[in-house]
């Protein structure tokens, strides 16, 4: 079994430290990408919430319109039934 010299050990140590710095850099980049993704999800969530509110408002308007038509039809039928000569 061969023994490692001090220069070889220093070289290996320097390589390990270099790899550690690269890994730290990658870790920071991953954190940035994760933050961006989280913000994009929040933005999409807000857009969906806005769309849900718009759909609810349109649904409310539709039912108001349908109710008005039904009441007008009932009024017309009542007029024809109770006052046929007018």
Automatic annotation (TrEMBL):
Give TM segment ranges: 62-82
Keyword entries, A-Z: Membrane, Transmembrane, Transmembrane helix
Q: What is this protein called?
A: Uncharacterized protein
Top-rank taxon of the source lineage equals Bacteria
* Organism (species): Petrachloros mirabilis ULC683
Q: Which Gene3D superfamilies match?
A: 3.90.20.10
């Amino acid at each position: 079994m061969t023994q490692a010299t001090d220069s070889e050990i220093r070289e290996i140590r320097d390589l390990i430290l270099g790899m550690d710095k690269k890994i730290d850099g990658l870790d920071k980049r991953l954190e940035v990408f994760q933050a961006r993704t989280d913000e994009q999800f929040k933005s999409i969530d807000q857009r969906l919430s806005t769309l849900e509110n718009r759909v609810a408002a349109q649904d409310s308007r539709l039912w108001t319109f349908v109710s008005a038509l039904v009441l007008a039809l009932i009024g017309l039928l009542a007029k024809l039934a109770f006052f046929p000569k007018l």
